Amino acid sequence: MNILVVDDDEMVRFVLTEKLAESGFSATAACDGRSAVALFHDTSFDAVLLDLKMPGMDGIETLKELRKHDPDIPVIMVTAFGDIATAVEAIKLGAYDFVEKPPQVSRMMLTLKRAIEKATLERKVRDLGKSVEESAALKQAYQKLRELDLAKNTFLSSVSHELRTPLTSIVGYADVSRKKIMKLIPEVSPDNPKNIKILRQVEANLEFLITESERLTGLIESILDLTAMEAGTAEWKWEPLSLSEVIENSAVDYSPKLKEKGLEFVVSVEDELPLIKGDRHRISQVLSHLLSNAVAFTEQGRVTLTAKKVKNKILLSVADTGRGIIASRQGIVFEKFSQLGDGLTDKPKGVGLGLSICRLIVGYHGGKIEVESEPDKGSVFTLLLPVEEVMKV
Amino acid sequence: MKDQEQIDRGKALHWLDGDDKMFARIKAIFNKNIPSQVDQLKGFLDAGDKASTELIAHTIMGSSAMLGASAMSDRAREIERSAIEGDMDSARLSFSVFFDEYEKVMVELTEEGGK
Prior knowledge:
Chain A is α/β, with parallel strands linked by helices. Chain A is built from eleven helices and 14 strands. Helices cover 56% and strands 19% of the residues of chain A. In chain A, the strands form four sheets. In chain A, strands 2-1-3-4-5 form a five-stranded parallel sheet, with helices on both faces. Chain A has a five-stranded mixed sheet with strand order 7-9-10-14-13. Chain A is elongated. Chain B is mainly alpha-helical. Chain B has a domain at 34-108. The two termini of chain B are 18 Å apart. The mean pLDDT of chain B is 90. The chains are: A alpha/beta, B mainly alpha. Chain A binds chain B through residues 8-12, 14-15, 18-19, 53-55, 80, 82, 101-106, and chain B through 14-17, 19, 22, 25-26, 29-30, 33, 52, 55, 58-59, 61-63, 65-67, 77, 80-81.
């Protein structure tokens, strides 16, 4: 602590600087106000003991000057008995306190320590106030972000609904038209191959229209699903759920697809897996998405579906021997619109909502989903469902 | 304090938290500075310089109080007050009383120094 002693009386300067040094302070003396102000320009002080009556710049003027440089510096006025009214004026100008001359050393030290303590506390309170203000600003910004997010979700949801209705009509009419064309083709005379060719072309075009419309419908469903889950408005049907059953159903659904692609399908489910409280449709949705990715991005080898109890968690994993995910994408595969690359590498495929939805679903079940992958060797997607948390849902 | 003693050692030690060495050192500073301060005071009084009289009387009042020389400090205060009030005649009158006290203090300091 560096203390500035300002007094025109050499005896006072000497006594105070010596006693301050004895008490562990670092003390600097100035014999008048101007010297004190000059010292203040170059040195940082923690407190000032300031004589009130001095030749040249008096204590009041000096106080005003010092506080221009440091408005928070604790200043103690040292004054003779007759100057108490002036000392009070000094306090009104921001001095912490005054002590009468001759200053009793221990009392002076006590006053000084209190002044420093008060200034330190005031600084802390002010800093705390700033933190509270910053915190309030952050809260406001967070609220604003929430509102914007909600507005975005509402917009997406509305647009998706508006798109889904005409798409259903498009798919319906296209399908009816395709079927009519298919009926027409055998009726066209084989002598008119040009007409048959045209009809087959129309049929193919309608087929393409239906496929793309269905793909678009799937995307819209995903957006609606995601926005509803993010907004907390998605509907859940919680029930005591046997994961073994869900896995079995998914395995039945995907076996033909895997077989068709020449992939081995290994299903390993531990006996007597405990029931969890979950949403059957949603957990199936997660498994379907993971298996679908595995089929899509694995050219040879196998896909392994495993479920077992690990401590108080259920570990469910889908492993493949596909081309894996390049390192730069592994950290973001669960982010919205983060598309997996072609062959889980770097060429985007799909819109990148599936794994985000999986993460949300698993999160709603109190669990987490992770991925480990090595390019050209495969990927393992792991769901961890903490049984206790699941039971609380 | 004995009647003839001008410097109240007990009072001075009270300000200094009983620090004897410090007391000896402030006596030395007082001894060094006070003659010229008193000369200045007399000069300002003679010149009728109220502001300077007030300031130097104030300094002498503080120093002598710190030393425990209460009578001398009180007389210096009277001069300061007269100067503040603009009554330089009273200030000059007070100076002679002050000077007596000052001389007594100096005698005592000299005697102490010779012991």
